[in-house]
């Protein structure tokens, strides 16, 4: 082996991808159906009458937000369930025993989560494009934020999976942190709608920047500073990556 | 005769006799198996759905321009809250019934229920009333929370209870059938994604009948969830989009039909007894 155990890393990555592809109806199709239902509901309830948000029709504003929401939820679900199931079943040793460094473990597992997130995003976008026009304004921003948002939630999922000891714990994190953040961070409404003294929720919220930056890639309108968003997601990912790395290196709640 | 007495005298105990209904058995199945199991995971099972429903309402109120109302006589929150309460209540009842049965099947403890001196009808009643209770508990808590923040007139409390009961029993029945039919968790989540979510979301929770494009009204009018929500909304706020008697009849009829099917499935042992 050289500096990097390339084959081991590849095997781990493929295992992570196969894990969700095995049940693709649950991991790819179900998010698509749910997201399209959301689109229908919100378009029926709130769209119509030429209502405009951020300079475009409401449905065009909503679409990218919903794609991002499904991506982050699935990236998180993938890594958190992978680690937690391995811990509960005891086969986590099969991850820790092979000659893989902590960094390689983080990259392999998070890579699987990113792949799931991006694939879900793609499938959802494909489904949406049947019902509404999805035009691309800046592909670079779309790809940057899709990958970084998926990575951020994949890393959070790893950290959550390592921390959790029971499925209740991860369900609590999903219910009380991930879902509220992905719902309340400007998926459905422009941040101008928030009362003045609640704007701080958006200012320090990476979810808001990635939804906003991702949406900019489609409609060419952003509520926030694109530069701040661009670097913020990168910095947050580096911090989360190091955290996950430390947790695995020290064996926190992994090695007895 | 108590157990202690039997031991002292050394005589075998007489076989327990039941009337037409094994009330004690039914009560144990209902309380221990269905309701207490649900309450043991209080945070996950009640707080989770309650939190996500509150987020839904918040998102809706924020996403909509302040002044715009759903219908002439109701504010947005007044319109959405009854729908969210009914949707949550039905979903919890469905989840609870299906998860109970799948767990019992996978762990093999369904044998304990089948072996007990309970008729198929008693089993159906015990499980489904348990799941319905869990739905009503969650919905009730949710309604209490919303009632603090939102002005709900409670026009007809009796009708509210009737429709809540109808919706939760109906979806408990759906959950039981899905639970019996499911052999793996995939089956359950497929049913949830492709049946319960569409019924719940395309139901008039979030939009009134008038907003549906012409030609698609049947989609709403044929959805029992729409009628359950409409009934609860009428009872809480006095606003109704459709005939309440038609809705009540549809919910009651479907519930009875599904209960009969569930009863037959248990009696035959479909996917339960090998």
TrEMBL record, chain B:
It is a multi-pass membrane protein. It is found in: Cell inner membrane; Membrane. Residues 40-269 form the ABC transmembrane type-2 domain. The keyword Transmembrane helix applies. It holds the Pfam family ABC2_membrane. The chain crosses the membrane at residues 46-64, 76-103, 123-149, 161-182, 188-209, 242-266. The keyword Cell membrane applies. Belongs to the ABC-2 integral membrane protein family. This is Transport permease protein. It comes from Denitrobaculum tricleocarpae.
């Amino acid at each position: 082996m050289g500096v990097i155990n390339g084959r081991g890393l590849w095997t781990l990555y493929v295992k992570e991808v196969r894990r969700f592809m095995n049940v693709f109806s649950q991991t790819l199709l179900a998010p698509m159906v749910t997201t399209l239902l959301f689109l229908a509901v919100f378009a029926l309830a709130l769209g119509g009458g030429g209502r405009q948000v951020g300079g475009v029709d409401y449905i065009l504003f909503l679409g990218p937000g919903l794609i991002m929401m499904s991506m982050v939820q699935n990236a998180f679900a993938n890594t958190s369930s992978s680690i937690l199931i391995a811990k509960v079943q005891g086969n986590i040793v099969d991850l820790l025993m092979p000659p893989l460094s902590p960094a390689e473990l983080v990259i392999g597992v998070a890579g699987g989560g990113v792949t799931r997130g991006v694939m879900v995003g793609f499938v959802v976008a494909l489904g949406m494009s049947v019902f509404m026009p999805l035009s691309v304004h800046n592909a670079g921003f779309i790809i940057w934020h899709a990958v970084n948002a998926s990575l951020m939630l994949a890393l959070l999922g790893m950290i959550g999976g390592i921390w959790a000891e029971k499925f209740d714990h991860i369900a609590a994190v999903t219910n009380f942190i991930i879902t509220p953040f992905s719902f309340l961070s400007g998926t459905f409404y422009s941040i101008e709608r928030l009362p003045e003294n609640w704007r701080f929720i958006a200012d320090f919220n990476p979810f808001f920047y990635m939804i906003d930056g991702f949406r900019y890639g489609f409609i060419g309108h952003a509520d926030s500073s694109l530069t701040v968003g661009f670097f913020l997601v990168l910095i947050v990912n580096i911090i989360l990556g190091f955290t996950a790395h430390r947790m695995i290196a020290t064996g926190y709640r992994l090695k007895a | 005769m108590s157990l202690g007495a039997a031991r002292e005298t050394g005589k075998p105990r007489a076989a327990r006799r039941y009337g037409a209904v094994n009330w004690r058995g039914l009560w144990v199945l209902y309380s221990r198996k269905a309701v207490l199991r649900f309450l043991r995971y209080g945070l996950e099972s009640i707080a989770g759905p309650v939190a996500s429903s509150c987020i839904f309402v918040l998102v809706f109120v924020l996403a909509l321009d302040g002044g715009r109302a759903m219908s002439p006589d109701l504010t947005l929150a007044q319109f959405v809250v009854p729908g969210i309460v009914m949707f949550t209540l039905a979903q919890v009842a469905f989840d609870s019934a299906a998860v109970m049965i799948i767990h019992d099947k996978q762990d093999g403890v369904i044998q304990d229920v089948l072996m007990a001196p309970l008729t198929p009808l008693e089993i159906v009643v015990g499980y489904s009333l348990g799941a319905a209770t869990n739905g009503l508990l969650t919905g009730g808590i949710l309604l209490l929370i919303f009632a603090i923040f939102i002005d709900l007139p409670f026009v007809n409390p009796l009708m509210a209870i009737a429709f809540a009961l109808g919706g939760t029993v109906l979806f408990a029945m759906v959950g039981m059938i899905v639970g019996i039919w499911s052999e793996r968790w995939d089956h359950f989540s497929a049913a949830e994604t492709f049946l319960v979510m569409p019924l719940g979301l395309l139901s008039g929770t979030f939009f009134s009948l008038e907003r549906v494009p012409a030609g698609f009204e049947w989609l709403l009018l044929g959805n029992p969830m729409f009628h359950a929500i409409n009934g609860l909304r009428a009872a809480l706020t006095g606003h109704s989009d459709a005939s309440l008697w038609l809705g009540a009849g549809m919910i009651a009829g479907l519930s009875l039909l599904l209960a009969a099917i569930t009863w037959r499935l248990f009696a035959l042992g479909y996917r339960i007894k090998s």
